[in-house]
Amino acid sequence: MVSILDIIGPVMVGPSSSHTAGACRLGLLARGLVGGTPTRATLELHGSFARTGEGHGTDKALVGGLMGFRPDDERLREALDIMEREGLDYRFEKTTLGEDADTHPNTVRITLERAGRSAVVQGSSLGAGRILVTAIDGFPVEVSGNLHTIVLVAEDVKGSVARIAQILADNDLNIATLRLTRKQRGGDAFMVIEIDDQPGEAVRDAIRALPWVRWAYRLDKVGP
Amino acid sequence: MFKSLADAIAAAEAQGTSLAAVALAAEAEDSGRPVADIRASLARALGVMRGAIAQGETGDLRSASGLVGGDAAKLRTGPAGPLAGTVFRDVLMRALAVQEVNAAMGVIVAAPTAGGAGVLPAVLTGLAARHAIPDERVIDALATAGLIGAVVAERASLSGAEGGCQAETGAAAGMAAGAAVEMLGGTPRQAGHATALAQQGTLGLVCDPLGGLVELPCVFRNATGAAIALAAIEMALAGVEFAIPVDEVIDVMGEIGKAMDVRYRETAGGGLAATPTGRRLAKERLVQIKRS
Fold first, then answer.
1. Which CATH class, in words, describes the domain spanning A10-137?
2. pTM of the entire predicted model
3. Residues 52..71 of B with a Cβ closer than 8 Å to A: which?
């Protein structure tokens, strides 16, 4: 269903909803995995992001997103200068992240570090500012950033979904979508839960306190 | 939201109201947000549109590649042409201004996209200024434009990569034409004809930006898109009707987009991007971006 506010919007820094606004959202979403602005990051650009990214400010938008700027923040234009002033160590590489047929032309893989935590996230900008994160730490996922999201890795134990659903229900949170993936039977399970309302830190902490949860993060809604 | 402009026009006629009113009611029902909230979001968008025009008309902006910038100011202060002093020239100036701001990484409203963001604000604010139309009616017009764009998104496409420029500045012209007709006192039926007249004038328009950047010809396509919208508005308000129903015009725009060679869909592989000068400029300017 199309909203008139999707058509008359978003308010954004130009020039391209896919190369600029979408790139910014990918950066914004990625920073949630290390709980804030990463001190080091490697950004591997694929396809059209690599070819025309500089002219579209894709580099500035990704960096701005990693620093917490939203797509309508005018500081995006100076994001690379701000990054240098803040002493952040971000590097760009042009690469090929897969065959053209299965990899969206506007794709980036970001390896980020902050305060002893690190993560690798791959995502694509689909057009009109919409994004899709397709892998986190090697696990295949589908995160749109349109809703608040909790991602977690847990040991593959029985009843894990029920226990987490109970924590969310106890906090009056409604699950919109839930996806569970694992690399092998008995191996770690990766859970992506999209939630209608913003979960508080207490919810994340309650999930982290479960003995079989290896890690859990809260990703803010990044758009539209 | 409506998936057919014919349905929206019929609903507005049955209720004796405007397309803006049925659009806002449908949006409120879909989103669960009160109409006042939706209007507040549209009012914010209008403020950003006017801010972009004010920023762009000064003429001291340059895009990343330096390929575009400074042309809006020429229409404001440059030599007179046959349309000097008319709303037509003012609308062209406004369209260039917004798109120059977009190319220089300024703040705009993607309406429907960043690449086509100049047409709607230029037509609506230019005509509103000329006819002293209060903001509440311009906000209504944005709702009507949103409705038209939503129908295009549903039936065809709003992406240059999918449908060529007819889906970006072409759709923007259709949105602007229908919305402006209603803002100027036209009926929902006349608004539908205005959209059809504008969209038919852009059928087949390719997306061929130099180097893949939203700069050239995008900035100028917004000005010519706005000109087509003005032509459609003038004809529709004079009572001109287009024999092919507006939904069918939108459908065929989508069909043409699907049939369009990939070279003409934002890949910089064809059209102006692939002319000898287009290729040379893109090469030179992209090198310049890397150095700066």
1. alpha beta
2. 0.89
3. 63-65
